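batch job 7 of whatever, protein = HAD family hydrolase
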Amino acid sequence: MGLRGILLDFDDTLYDYKECNSAATIAALKSICQRHSIGMNSAKALFEKARMQVKANTRAQAASHSRLLYFKAMLEMLEGRTNAGYSLRLERLFWEKYMQKMTIPSQAIEFLKWCRGKGLRIVILTNLTAQIQLRKAVASHIDRFVDFIITSEEAGAEKPAGSIVRLAMEKAGCKRDELVLVGDIDEKATAVKNRLAFFPIKGKESWNNARGQLEKMLTPKNVLGKSRKTASPVGGRNA
């Protein structure tokens, strides 16, 4: 069978995850430092302790990435009780700063436009909860270019589990050998486990390389049909 669809990683593939996560974490920890009169190094250490505690309790689940749970656990360590209101405010502050920092490179946008022009299905496969990942997609306008966004929350397992890939195949209406996975090098494990062709993204120029390789896999009979227009933008960067 020929190429009919693209499985696309989101975090650290379409944008710089580390830059966004660092800026957002610092913003939230500054608030905690001011409220509790502690230094940044102490706050970072306590946050990491809380993060690891949450991950130990929610291993291989979408909730293991929950910043709300991280901040809730951290405040419980500091205050000896659940501070629901402040936990929610910290999570809101974190994601506002995070999404303000998100920037999708033009090379990635051109790649997605090219895929749509060829009639290829585009399915984002991503860990974390649906609410946060959908907010990221709207804030970055990536939702305009993709057909489906599938999260580990709805698949019931984190990548590289087969369930998330099978759900993508079902939604896209494609067989395994009609799909390729595009993502950062960490996604290779998902490709290997699920017997998928893999094109790594290691920098902005990698998008052009991936496009060139995919072009070789296409024939007029491979694609789903006519090219599809990009959807109208929905929401803004702070949605």
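notes: The chain has a mean pLDDT of 91.
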